[in-house]
Structures are given as C-alpha cells and as structure tokens.
Amino acid sequence: MDKKEKRILITGASRGIGNAIARTLIEEGYSVAACYHSSNAFIEPLQKLAEAKGVNLQLLQFDVSNRDAARTALEEDIAAHGVYYGVVCNAGITKDAPFPGMSAEDWDSVLRTNLDSFYNIVHPVVMPMIQSRKPGRIVVITSVSGINGNRGQTNYSASKAGLIGAAKSLAVELGKRNITVNCIAPGVIETDMVSQEIIDYVKPMIALKRIGKPEEVAAAVSFFLSEQASYITKQVLCVDGGMV
Ligand code: NAP
Predict the structure, then answer these.
(1) Active site residue 156
(2) If you take atom 15 of ligand 1, which residue's CA is the nearest one?
(3) What is the largest CA-CA distance in the chain?
(4) What is the atom index within ligand 1 of the atom nearest the CA of 145?
C-alpha cells in the first residue's frame, strides 16, 4: 500500500507535538486528517506542505472532549475520504495544582480532554478500520507522568495512566485484526505546555541533559506507523532523554 493511500488521523495537530507529527508524516508521504480545536495559524503552512508533497490533507475542527461533535466530524470525514490507516491520539491539556487545592473543574476537564477523548476518537473510527480488513495502527500520546506520577498532576497522571490501560486492552482486542496499538510517553518536550520553570527543574533529572523536541516524538510516532513496526503492539515507548 502506497503511503499516500494511508490516511493518518492526528488530534491536536495545530500546535506542539501534534503539529510536528502532522508535518513529519506529510513529509514522509502520508495523507493526513489534521484535527484542531481553537488554533488555526497552522493551516496555511500545513496546506502548502501537503500540496508540495502531493498528499491529501483534511482539516477537522472539533473539541475532542465533545463526544457527539467528534463522532459527527469523524464519520463525515470517513464517508467523504475513506477509512484511516492510522490514528494518533495526541490532543491533551494540563491543569496542574496540588491535590488538596485542585478544583473539580480542573479534575473533570483534564480527564474529559485527555482520557475520554480516547473513546470519543477511537470508537467512531475503529469499526471502519476493522471492516477494511487491512492492517492498521493506533498510537496514543501518554506521558511519563502517567507512569511515574508527578507532583501537582494527579488529574493529568490519572488521565495518562488511564490511556495506557485503555491502549493495552485495545491492543489485545485488535491483535487478530492486524491493528497495533501502542503508546508513546514523552518526558519534557519544548511546547506551549511546558514553562521555563518546569524546564529548569527537570533538566538535572534527564540523562541527556536537555529537554526534547516535538520532532523527536514525531519520529517515534512515524516508527510505530511504519511497516517495520508490524510486530510491535501493546507497548509504551518513553521518549524522555533518559529521565532518572
Ligand atoms: P500543546 O502545545 O499545548 O498543544 C496541545 C494541542 O492539543 C493543541 O493542538 C490543541 O488544539 C489540542 N487540544 C487541546 N485541547 C483540545 C480539545 N479539547 N479538543 C481538541 N484539541 C485540543 O501541547 P503538546 O505539548 O504538544 O502536547 C501534546 C500531547 O503530548 C498531549 O497529550 C500532552 O499531554 C502530551 N505530552 C506533552 C509533553 C510535553 O512536555 N510537552 C510531555 C508529555 C506528554 P488547539 O490549539 O487547536 O486548541
């Protein structure tokens, strides 16, 4: 199957890691369905890149925490442009606070955006993937915070640990369909999500003594999507510079 025939759905493609994933995959010749919520400055450059590479680019605007909006947008896109080969669940937020001071809204919005979105995104697209009777790939962007826990991030860690559990169970269910499900757990990556204060605090704990670039996470996504990764499923790959 030609890469251009492989459509990859990416949530949170407007900024940070998701935008690097979209650019990397288009550069590699995949067709992309780029989801975004509120930012649209990325659209023109991404369209130019897709045109230059001769691949298809669809733009889908919806809130990943809105179950009905997600289903409608994804079902319409599949009906118009065909089934996805790959899905990258990347959109996410943080609302950090020490647990005693964490509001119910901070808890709920992080769980809805980061964890419920797994259901909201993957559920509408998975039956069409199965029915296509072709191999497929699901890649979930979780976090080292979901593995190790982190001060001030009970909501975020819960959402990211939940994603790992969901992905592992789905990997077991979809194995016989030749659809792999894997997670990537970034450490600290240079995006809008990360403040200078976090960078200064965490740098001494990273073996490589620097924070990561969005493109370095995108490279791991590209690997999981590749033919070469066909026998890898139910895994969590940390892209964290060796956090100690
Ligand atoms: P970012 O720069 O803040 O970008 C977040 C992206 O998610 C944006 O494209 C945003 O879309 C989208 N998004 C947020 N809420 C959304 C919603 N309700 N509906 C639809 N889209 C929504 O963050 P990032 O650092 O690239 O993070 C990407 C993923 O990596 C997240 O899951 C994050 O938890 C994970 N991660 C990041 C780091 C890090 O150090 N940066 C570390 C570990 C894990 P709009 O701009 O269009 O609103």
Answers:
(1) yes
(2) 92
(3) 52
(4) 43
Q: What is the pLDDT along the chain (244 residues), one digit of tens a residue?
A: 899 999 999 999 999 999 999 999 999 999 999 999 999 999 999 999 999 999 999 999 999 999 999 999 999 999 999 999 999 999 999 999 999 999 999 999 999 999 999 999 999 999 999 999 999 999 999 999 999 999 999 999 999 999 999 999 999 999 999 999 999 999 999 999 999 999 999 999 999 999 999 999 999 999 999 999 999 999 999 999 999 8
**With 0-12 CB in 10 A as exposed, 13-18 as middle and 19+ as buried, what is 113?**
buried
HSE at residue 47, side-chain half, CA atoms within 13 A, is 7
pTM: 0.99
**83 in contact with ligand 1, CB cutoff 6 A:** no
Residue identifier of the C-alpha nearest atom 31 of ligand 1: 92
Instruction: Please indicate whether residue 38, judged by its CB atom, sits closer than 6 Å to ligand 1.
Output: yes
Q: Which atom of ligand 1 is nearest to the CA of 190?
A: 41
How remote is the CA of residue 113 from the centroid of ligand 1, in Å?
10
Q: Are 204 and 212 in contact (CB under 8 A)?
A: no
84 C-alpha to ligand 1 centroid (Å): 21
Among candidates 40, 58, 56, which has minimal Cα distance to 5?
56
Q: Is 231 left (phi over 0), alpha (psi -120 to 50) or beta?
A: alpha
Distance 25 CA to ligand 1 centre (A): 18
